[in-house]
Design brief:
The chain has 172 residues and is α/β, with parallel strands linked by helices. It has six helices and six strands; from the N terminus they run βααβαβαβαβαβ. α6 links the parallel β5 and β6. The longest helix has 17 residues. It is elongated. The protein starts with a strand and ends with a strand. The structure holds iron/sulfur cluster. One of its GO terms (biological process) is chlorophyll biosynthetic process.
């Protein structure tokens, strides 16, 4: 797929963390239309259609949104779809009770198996989206319902060293 100079310049204005996604989306649109060259106008349309939701939005009422994510136990995820975490967040209960309406969940992922194999990799992916706080899910903390995670303190330290605050718990 060829790109006009103007389209290449426009692509450079797309934030780095969604640039690859924008490139793929516009090339797919242009290809589906049976054309072989991307123009700046194509990029503008594809960006609006596929990417703009993921870009930084203007602050509402001067409030900077707090961006949170939840990591949960890979093993427990076999039997838990995560409903309680989302319900508790929506109702601002338990470990979510202090968040205002501007707070967003921008990630929900499993640890990847002991000893938290993919946590730092996914936190790294979320940082360009301004992740503020990572919650370790309640399933990692509870002694009775599920086996407590033996790596939770180590996971916490690693994430905090990446500049992201950690809260130990979600719904109870
Ligand atoms: S590291 Fe902890 S949370 Fe992840 S699978 Fe092992 S016990 Fe579960």
């Amino acid at each position: 797929m060829k790109w006009t100079k103007e389209a290449e310049l426009e692509l450079k204005k797309v934030p780095v963390f969604v640039r690859k996604m924008a490139k793929r989306a516009v090339e797919m649109e242009v290809g589906n239309a049976g054309r072989e060259e991307v123009t700046a106008e194509d990029l503008k349309i594809a960006r609006e259609k596929h990417i703009s939701f993921a870009e930084e939005q203007p602050e509402k009422n001067g409030l900077k949104p707090t961006r949170i994510a939840i990591v949960r136990c890979e093993t427990v995820s076999e039997v838990c779809p995560g409903v309680a975490c989302f319900k508790a967040f929506k109702q601002r209960r338990a470990y979510f009770k202090d968040y205002g309406p501007e707070t967003e969940i921008i990630g929900f992922f499993t640890c990847g198996g002991c000893p938290g194999r993919r946590v730092s990799r996914l936190v790294e992916k979320l940082k360009p989206f301004n992740l503020d706080i990572l919650h370790l899910s309640s399933c990692m903390m509870l002694e009775n319902t599920y086996p407590v995670c033996p790596h939770k303190e180590e996971i916490k330290k690693i994430v905090e060293a990446m500049g992201v605050k950690v809260v130990s718990g979600t719904h109870h």
